[in-house]
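Friendly challenge for the regulars: who can give me the structure tokens for this chain first? No prize, just bragging rights.
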Amino acid sequence: MPLSFPRLVAGREGNENKHGVHGGMMGSGLEMLIALVFGYLCGAIPFGLILVKSAGLGDIRTVGSGNIGATNVLRTGNKTVAGLTLILDAAKGAVPAALMGWLYGPEAGILGGLAAFFGHLFPMWLGFKGGKGVATSIGVLFGLFWPLGLIFIGVWIVMALVFRISSLSALTASVLSPFAAWALGRGDLILPAVIMGAAIFVTHRANIARLVRGEEPRIGKSKPA
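First reply, four minutes later:
Bragging rights claimed.
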């Protein structure tokens, strides 16, 4: 039976079951509320905006596509800041998914992860205009079941090496994630993967239009994402 990261951590005590520290099939309403709020607040932290401003590079919302994600941060020319943005955007998805799953059970982990994902897309501090969700979705998958996160990254890397198009790589990985969850015996993660994948397609609608026209820029070229 596959093991997720939250279960590996929770497994340190023999009397803890797969539903988390407190047990229960679905968790209490309060626990679900905590997972929802904690996840959203983590996801809504605009690391791209904070890091770019801290580095004295101005407001990332005035650069390129105006997106706060790592791809647009890279357009500032600072690879270190872009790399940190990528890591932190992934971490803010992984932490709620793993922590809420460990504390309150797998359903709370899924809810916390999805809340973080949508918090990144719609941060209330920025007028609900956030990033496109790829890095955060990877973090959520890692927090819920790390092999699924690895598969997403693997697909992205292969597609990027072959086609050199970041958006196409992310879209392909998003499509394949639900199938990967099924193949790995994690039917409970199929719906979360579908939800995040569908949202990523919506946030990449401009990219999809450029892909259809053959105008989507390749990795390394400075055009809107």
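Residues 1-20 have pLDDT under 50 and may be disordered. The two ends are 39 Å apart (CA to CA). Your move, everyone else.
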